[in-house]
Every structure is written in C-alpha cells, then in structure tokens.
Amino acid sequence: MAVALTILTDPGDAAARRTLTVAPGTTILKAAHAAGVDITATCGGRGRCTSCRVKFLAGLPPPPTIMDEVQLGDDLVREGYRLACQCLLHESVTVQAAPPLEERSFQILGAGQLGRVALDSGVAKQVVKVTLPREEHHQTSDLEQLLEAVGLTTADVGTAVLQGLPQALRDDPAGVTVTTFASGGTAAGRQRILAVERGDTAGMKFGLAIDIGTTSVVTTLVELDSGEQLASVSSLNPQAVFGGDLMSRIAFAQFNPANLRKLHTRIVGLLNQHIEQICRDSGVLAKWIYKVVVVGNTCMHHILLGIDPSHVGLAPYAPVLRHPVTLSARELFLKVAPEARVCLLPLVAGFVGADAVGVALATRIYESAEIRIAVDIGTNGEVLLGSRDRLWACSAPAGPALEGAQIRHGMRGALGAVDRVTVDDDIRVHTIGETDALGICGSGIIDLLAGLLHAGVIDWTGLIQVEARDALPPGLSERVVVRGEERQVVVLRPGEAGARQEIVLTQDDVRQVQLAKGAIASGVMMLQHVAGVPSEMVAELMLAGGFGNYVSIESALRIGLIPPLPRERIRYVGNAASLGAQLCLLSETERTRAETVAARIEHVSLAAHPDFEEIFVECMNFPRPS
Amino acid sequence: MAVALTILTDPGDAAARRTLTVAPGTTILKAAHAAGVDITATCGGRGRCTSCRVKFLAGLPPPPTIMDEVQLGDDLVREGYRLACQCLLHESVTVQAAPPLEERSFQILGAGQLGRVALDSGVAKQVVKVTLPREEHHQTSDLEQLLEAVGLTTADVGTAVLQGLPQALRDDPAGVTVTTFASGGTAAGRQRILAVERGDTAGMKFGLAIDIGTTSVVTTLVELDSGEQLASVSSLNPQAVFGGDLMSRIAFAQFNPANLRKLHTRIVGLLNQHIEQICRDSGVLAKWIYKVVVVGNTCMHHILLGIDPSHVGLAPYAPVLRHPVTLSARELFLKVAPEARVCLLPLVAGFVGADAVGVALATRIYESAEIRIAVDIGTNGEVLLGSRDRLWACSAPAGPALEGAQIRHGMRGALGAVDRVTVDDDIRVHTIGETDALGICGSGIIDLLAGLLHAGVIDWTGLIQVEARDALPPGLSERVVVRGEERQVVVLRPGEAGARQEIVLTQDDVRQVQLAKGAIASGVMMLQHVAGVPSEMVAELMLAGGFGNYVSIESALRIGLIPPLPRERIRYVGNAASLGAQLCLLSETERTRAETVAARIEHVSLAAHPDFEEIFVECMNFPRPS
Fold it and tell me: Assign residue B227 a region: left if phi > 0, alpha if psi is -120 to 50, beta otherwise?
C-alpha cells in the first residue's frame, strides 16, 4: 500500500530529485526528513510558516488545510502549493520543494483566505524607568510616577497591580515593564494597566484561545506579537461525567445550585490544568499571559460565568445574555496574570453560541460574495449559511458520537485510536501513532460506516445485514455477528494485526451515528430550505470542528453527513471556532467585529419549524446507492 | 448645681411656659421629655431634622454643633436657634419651643453651613416588568429584555448580577427592581447594573459611610434618598493589637506578607461585623446597601486594599497611589450587595489621607473666603489650613492617648468612662451613663489636665508637683502621691462616690498627653508658619474627630491642644471625616469634587521642615499661666 513521493530539491535543476517510498498518511515533511531530504521547517512543522511549502508537479494536491490557506493564500493554493508539514500522502505524487516565493513575514492568520489581519491585540508592553517619589512636600505616589513614565494621564488599575506596585518599582533599578490593554485596539482611548513587572519582560506577551466544547476543551497558547501558535492542549470536558450532551448537563445543573457550582468548578479547574501544562510545554510563565479569548456554546459559556443555564434548556431556549463579556482572570480564578483580560465572545442564541461567532469570523463567511456553508461538527454542532448579504445559523445537536463518545469502543482522536478504515473484502484499519488499537475515533467511525455501506454490510436504513451476510466476501462475512440480541460488526479481533483487544461496532453505535449525522445533515438542509438556497447555489461547504481536519470528506459524503455537493466545493477549515478565538486574541478589530457579526446572524430554530420533523427523519437514513 | 430651663410652649402665648430644674449636661430635649413637655422629635432626637428646634430667648446659646449648622443653617444659628436634642444645658436659659419656621425637607447635610447638597447618590432604582424572551427564532436574552425594560441600550453588568438574573426575572410576575449606578451622578452617561431583585424594593436604597481610623472605626448607615442617618456603629480598630500607632503597624506589615494579610483580614472582618450589626439595628437588609464610601488615613486605606504600606513608613513617605479607587463589594469581600460600589476617596500624601479630604469636603474649607483651620484629632491627626485661595495640610501624629489608649486607666468614650472632670479643692468626675467609673476617656483626660494645671498640681513642663503638694488644698494634696518611683495623681479611690476601682493619672500618662497635644499644636503652628498666617487672621478653628464633640474647648485651650484663639472663633464640627464620606455617599457631585479638592491640598511635611523641632518641643509644654 506504499506510495511514491518524488521530490525535486533544486528548482534550477530538474535532475536533482529523490523518489521515496512512503506509507500512506505520512506527511511529505515527515517522509522527507526520514529519508534525509532537507526541507526547511522554521516553525517546527506546525503549519505556522511557509518555509516547507511544496508545489505539486504530478498527482492531485490534497484539499488545502486551513493552514495552507492561511500561510499560502488562495492563489498559491490554487496553483498547487501546499505546506509539506500539513500534506498527508495518499497517492504517488511529485513535488517541487521550496520553489521561489516572495517570503512573507512569519505569522499565523496573517494572510490567505482569511484575509490579512493586522496584529493588534490591544496588549502593549513598555519598559520604563520610574522615578520614585522623593519629595516629602508636594507628594506624588508610586502610581502617578508610573503613569508619568508610561505617558498616561489616567488608567484603570486593578488592585492586584496596585498590590505589587511598591515592590516592583523598588526591586530593579533597571526599570519595570508595564503591560497595558486598550479595548478596541491600541489606538483606542482608555488604557488598563494589566501588570507591572520588574526588569525587562517586553518580549513576553502571550494570550490564550480557549474553545470550550460540550465534549472537548482546546486551549491554545499564542504569542501576541507574532501570532505564532506555541502550544495547544486538548482534553475531554470533565463536566461530561455529569451528562454527555447539553440537555442532560442542563438537567444536572438545574437539579440544585451545588451542581451548577460543581460544573463551574470543573471547567475552571480544567482550564487551570491546561494553563499549567501549556506553560510547562512552552516554557512560558503563566504571568505573561495577559489576554484570553473564550468561545464555546451558550451553555458552556453560562456555566463558565457561574450562570444557571436552566432556561437555556427550556423553550424558547433563550440565553441569559448575549453581550460580549470581559472580566479579569482573577474574577474567574484563572491562573494567568491576575488582571489579564478574559474576553468571552458574544452569543447568538441559546444553542448558537460564541463558537459559531468564532467560526463566522475565521471563515469570513460574513463578507463572502457567494453563499457558503460552514458546518461546525461537535456534540453541539452548529451550521452557518449565507454571504455578506444575509447569514443564518442553527444548532445541530449531534451528540457526542462523532467525538467517539457513547460508542461501544469509541474514543477521542488520541494515540491508539483507529482513525482510518478501509473496507474491501475485509476491514483494514490505521491507528493514530500506528500502535495497537485502543478504540475507534470519529473519523474512523465515519470511514467504517462509509465502507460498510459500500460493501453492503449495512443498508440505507442503517441495519446491519446479518441475514444477508453470506453474500459478503468471506473475510467480511465472518465479522458480521449476532451476540445476545445485538447485531455487531467485529472491526478487530485480539490477535489480528494491530489489535490488542476486540473492537466492535454495534447496531446501537450505528444508530448513534445516524442520530448525529442526521442532526447535522438536517441542519444544513433546513438552513438551505429557510434561506431558499438550492445546493447549486452553494459555492462552498466548509467543514469545521476539532476532528474536521481528520475526517475523510469522501466518507462524510458517503454516509450523508454533509449534503451531496461536488467534492471540490467541500474543504476542511480545521477548528474554526478556536481559530476565531485566536483572531480575536490577535486583533481587537476582529474582537469588535464579533459583536457586529453576532448581531447579523439570524437564528433559525429547527425544532420550531413545521418541516423539520420530516427532514430530520429523512436525514437519519443513509443516502441510497444511486 | 442644677440649672433652670424655661420653655415657652406656645409662640402665640407668652404665658404658656414651664420652668424645669435640670442637671447640667442634660439636653433640652431630654429635660423637656422627662418633664412631660412635648417637643416633637421626628428623627428620634438624632439631629437629623429640625422638628425639635428651639430659640434662645434668655441665656447664652451654646456653640452650635455641626448638626445645628446642617439642619438649621448659618442664619438661624446666628439668630439663636438650636436643636433641642443637641443642646446641652450648662446654665439657666429660656427657650421658645418650635417657633414658626418654614419647614424644610427632612434631610441630613441638606442645608446650613455646609451648603445645600443636591441629593444625587448616583444610585437609582426602577421597578419594571420584563417581557421574557419568547421567540425561538430571532432570539434575545434575559439581559437584553431587562435593558429594554429599563430603557438602556447598554450597561456594565457584573457576573453576580448575571448569575441571579434568570431566577429574578422568573420569580415574580409583578416585576423586578433594577438598581443602577451612574458614576458622577444619575445624569452621567454609562450605567452599571448593581442588582436585579424580584418584586418592588424601590424604597430600599442604602449606603454606608466608613471612617477607618488607626484606633477607631465608625460605620454609618444612610438612606440614600433622604440622606437620613439610620444607624451608626463604632468600635476599636482590631488591628490595634498589632501596633497602636501607624508606624508600629507599618513595621508589623513589613515584617512579612502574612502579617499584611492579617491586618487586611482583620479590618474586612470588622467591617462585616459592623454591617451585620447595623443591619440588625436598623432592619435594613445588607443586600439593599449599594454604595459604600470609605475614608481613612493612607495606611488604613492601603491595608484595606491589601497594599503593603511599608513605603508609606519610609522617607519620603509616599503613598502607592492617591487616585480615588472604586471597586465592587465582592472584590473586597464586603457582605453588602455583591456589585455595590465601594468608593475610596483620594489621598493627599502618605500621612494625609482620604480622611483629610473628607474633612475638607464637610467643612467646605476649600470655598471659604476667610482663612480657617480644621483640626482632625485622632491617633493620626491631620490639620488643614486655608481658604478658597490656597489650602495646606499636614499630619499631626498624636498617637492614641487622646482616644484613651496608652494611658494607664484610659478607655474609649463608652459607658463608665470619666468624660468630665472638675478640679477645685478636690477632683470631681462625671461618667458616661453616670455609672461607676471604669476608666477615663480623652475628654476626661483633657479636663483633668486643665484642672490640675489650673490648681498647680502639675506645672507648665508637665511635672506632677509632689514636692509642693503641701501648698495644695488638703483634698487635692492627698491625691498627689509617689508609688515606687512613679508620680501619680489619684483621680478616684475605691469607696469614693462613683468609684468602683482606683483610677490614677501617672506622670507617664501626662507625658503621653503632652506628646499628643504637642503633635497637634505644633501641626497647627507649623501650617500657620508655612502659610504666613498669624492667629489674628484665622477666622475660625474647627475641631473635628470622633471625640471632638465631647471635649471641652476651654480645657483644650487651657492645655494648649489648640492655639490660643478667642473662644468664639472655635467650634466643634463633629466627625467631619465621616461626614465628608456621607456627603460623597449622597452626592456624586461631592465625590467628584473630592478629587479636585485633594489635588488642591498642598502637603507640608513637618519632619522635613528645619523649624519643626524647635516648635514641637515648645508645643509639648503646657501654656505658662499668663
């Protein structure tokens, strides 16, 4: 199953080439480095620069990732450029390494499809020498001397800064570093002093983008001056033990105030664990984190603020507030700089949260001339449809199945997860890290279902075809079993290659996926229906979400997770909610824009729509073979 | 020693009169009520209204108290009007009860010497019916519906309000009461929502004025709409166990951060005790307290904010900040409405704090055409001198002796304290509550020293005249003793009338008082010196401070606590620092003015002045008999 990778290493000399034999699914960069072919990776292969760019000379370039779009821009992507670090090989190709290209500055989100973002986080640092008060008559104060040194006549100063002020000013004769924040951007009027540190720490200016999903929480550390993403941590939302989906979590919170406090404490605790880990991983001190942007669905947002989400769970499912909220890290007990600004993006509706606003910002759907669709896949998925003229959104409560939860052998996309499945005369799997399989993650489940549908192991209603298994190839046939009263497909048996334990797909698992994909597909269909947009009019469907980058678009199309658009009109955009948060972290203009965009989004309540029931039932089924 | 009080009860009939025999020191109101003469006291005899006003027809009206000035105004006071509840009888007089007077509204600080203050606390309440969100499409939120109901497009809303919002809006179909605050006054722009309460609580709108002294803390509950003072609690500052004066308290804080925390926790704990007690006394719920104004010296101010005051104790004694600070009650852990605004008035210098600013506001010294002096007597006393043209201030670190501390048998002015002393051929005492004496308070000590000086028991250097005691009348002579090596004056012996235990004045007590009064007198003298103001140019000396209302001005003059001005140019103004805080509580215009006034005050550092040493030593002595 190996593929051939041919790399032209010298643009001036077509003979300077190497052909490598590579396992499918390897990135070009990894393959090149393994074979000793030098491809520069300034950012360490994290999609944060353009140094590892390659141009496809033969073979089909894979769909661009959001990193390709961001770093290379639309034009280069169309010309067949890709980042070697992002580009997974699935067929034999020939590429040209680092061909001449006007090098642009090293920045994330600085160019490309998302538009150039002027870096202006609102956070500024100044190293100043403060003249200590020395007059006994006509006294001044530490704060006045500080303000004079930084050239401000007035500023908001929190008590945490005041408490540290006398020591900081007197500790280091070399001076102090004053961190200020201007909401709306550094050109804006009123400043807030976030920190005063001894010595020169001007180079240390970091922020966090936090995406709190129902099932997963992702925290990303970003350097505010360069936009560089330094580290990212993701983990399960620890509230999940109190309910896998939003409704059960709301019911738990509703039960008594102690439960709400429990949910609140859990998420704050997890964020502090993330902060600790991300700081350890990157060598950044937590006190150098001055700005935090949080996105998440309405329920997660409310719980983070300690607000009872009960009424979000009852018709008409209205949020307690939709305004953007800014508070100090101290108020939230987040262990970054105590006066760091924690900015929660605005909400659209009870089930269309700040995460949807983040997706809108990152995908620039609000300024698109043509109609686009963004599907944010997650436990509490959301669908956006529209253009610069109008924008609609609805929730698509998929439940956690696509994130591997509530699936017999489901797991997150971590080491040991089956992430790719091929079904021909038997089932073949690939695991993350190529270790023994521990379970199966979302992309694996979708691949598996697509393959089983194709092979006729399950029919369009989702039923596992136990009765007809004899018609299958022997390898496959053996895997279709009934245990107790349960229909199962045995994906892996202990003893098989790559199998440490048995992994099965149950009939119930199939039903869970049908519910999940039904929710998403019917969300898309309903928005098209409400907006009067037939599929021909959809210029592009953008697949977003934590696992959006890993799912096979072909498989997603096959199981009907997304509407049957031509393949080239579908692309991955990665965790767009988190990217939206990063945009707001890096640009106060973007954070200001979030409010305008949120206000523009028209909420469509699926459940309240008379046609929804029928559409949902239809979407639960798999597409019938054409 | 009784005096005669004649009351004309009917202004139209001079024959309608009663003559009562009254013990000196009784108020006219109390005497009248005891004898069954009806004098209306709407406010309960607390100087908060004008209903008990009397006009002196014969006999000298006593110096007006600040309440007389506030309620009656300058003109009426000059015409001989006084409040019967404030007026202590010391000689026989004839008064006319409640003569015709255009009744002004019931308000504190609303008129008189301090000028009419327009009541505008910035706190407003509105009862509204909020339409709950009911649309599933085009959603709104609880907060948006609330803002619409109160007619705001935007407002600052703290998380504590948001957390209670869904419940409050759904609890009572009759509506909710929304409390807002506009910094600078209700006409000012941006509003902050302080509370949303179910039902109609519009009548409940209270504030606290807090005066944190080194030795005493006074908390006053004020109704914001009427200005009425409802209750007041005072107690010892519990930090005193860690040092009686500021310098020893600073030294304690400096020792380690845990000590600073200890001081901080103690004061916050005490304030919460005060709040509990004041609410219990008045029947006001703590959640109805929406605004708190705090004055205090710089060190107390810093400790309340958790700021290390170490550098306030080191030359050049500069504060960490002088700006006014506003924060939420929640941040300070004060148990009033969580989003209540806690406003700390601005500071002038390391040893001239927000209390001095409060005194300046309350006495209106900053707008005086003539030069006035305000002396705030306290452990960390302060002196203000000036007029609308220029204003100077210095600290007068008297130590706690005048508050009864660091005196062998000293105590606060509470039940059982000797508060009045007469010395003729013997020593005669009066105790608060006329119970057995437990100790001697500041006003008693000053009376005692004045009497002993007059009788020749101590000389102008402060030495107790043991050697010359035989020249004294026998009753007095017996009281002058030497025990061990200590010279003492026995004020009370067990078995004497009013004596439960022995109370003595030691030579060391005299020295403590000399230090205290020396600090204050030299402060006044130095300001006169620096400003070039001879005593003839001083139009008035205002005596302020917790015990200012009780001290005998004659005694204070006799011991040289205040400069030898003609008696009629000296008056009591009560606890002016606390009254200044109350002004700012009731009027955002005043609170805004505090900053201008603070900026205008020129700080004079006594210790840094070359002439101070000599003046201080001179002021430690008692005035020589002329």
Answer: left
Cα distances from A184 to residues A192, A211, B427, in angstroms, run 12, 22, 73
Q: Count CB neighbours of B151 within 10 A.
A: 9
| Residue in chain B nearest A317 by alpha carbon | B136
CA distance B373 to B367: 13
Are B89 and B3 in contact by the 8 Å Cβ rule? The answer is yes
Q: Structural domains in chain B?
A: 3-106 (3.10.20.30), 123-198 (3.10.20.880), 213-344 (3.30.420.480), 364-393+514-620 (3.30.420), 402-507 (no CATH)
The span from the CA of A356 to the CA of A375, in Å, is 9
Taking only the tens place, the pLDDT of each residue in B262-274 is 999 999 999 999 9
Residue A604 contacts B where some CB pair is shorter than 8 Å: yes
| A305/B136 Cβ within 8 A | no
Which positions in chain A touch B334 (Cβ < 8 Å)? none
Closest CA of chain B from A158, distance in Å = 9
Which residues 6+ apart lie within 8 Å of B57 measured at CB? Answer: B8, B80, B94, B95, B96
Structure tokens at B214: 């080194």
What ipTM was estimated for this complex?
0.78
Rounded distance, CA B330 to CA B204, Å?
20
Q: What is the DSSP string of A535-591?
A: GGGEEEEEEESTTTTTS-HHHHHHHTSS----GGGEEEEESHHHHHHHHHHHBHHHH
Q: How far apart are the first and last CA of chain B?
A: 29
In chain B, residues 56-95 whose CB comes closer than 8 Å to chain A: none
Count CA atoms within 13 Å of residue A562 on its CB side: 30
Contact between chains at A318 and B132 (C-beta distance less than 8 A): yes
In angstroms, what separates the C-alpha of A610 from chain B's closest C-alpha?
13
Distances (CA, A) of B225 to B73, B110, B180, B585: 21, 12, 14, 11
- Asked if the Cβ–Cβ distance from B310 to A166 is below 8 Å, we say yes
Nearest CA to A321 out of B198, B125, B146 is that of: B146
Chain A, 333 to 362: residues with Cβ < 8 Å from chain B are 347-350
Could you report the per-residue pLDDT of B41-95, keeping only the tens digit for each? 656 677 766 778 888 888 888 888 888 887 787 778 888 888 888 888 888 888 8
Which positions 153-182 of A are in contact with B (Cβ < 8 Å)? 154, 157, 159, 162-163, 165-167, 170
Q: Which of A588, A346, A353, A327 is nearest to B156 (CA)?
A: A327
Is A142 in contact with B311 (Cβ distance < 8 A)? yes
Report the gap between the CA of B347 and the closest CA in chain A (Å): 10
B136 to A321: CB separation less than 8 angstroms, yes or no: no
d(CA B265, CA B295): 18
Residue of A122, A287, A92 whose CA lies nearest to A189: A122
At residue A392, what are phi and psi to the nearest 5 degrees?
Answer: -115, 155
What the block records as the tokens of A556 is 């997603």
Between helix A576-586 and helix A588-600 the angle, nearest 10°, is: 130
Residue B232: C-alpha distances to residues B52, B578, B601 (Å): 21, 11, 29
pTM: 0.79
Among A288, A364, A87, A327, CA closest to A183: A327
pLDDT per residue as tens digits for the range B319-330: 999 999 999 999
Best to test chain B binding among A144, A152, A162, A299 (most B CBs inside 10 Å)? A162
For residue B320, give the nearest of A166, A308, A605 by CB distance: A166
Whether A515 and A609 have beta carbons less than 8 Å apart is answered as no
For A332, the closest chain B residue by CA position comes to: B159
| Spatial contact of A270 and A562, defined as CB atoms under 8 Å apart | no
Q: Is B195 helix (H, G, I), strand (E, B) or coil?
A: strand
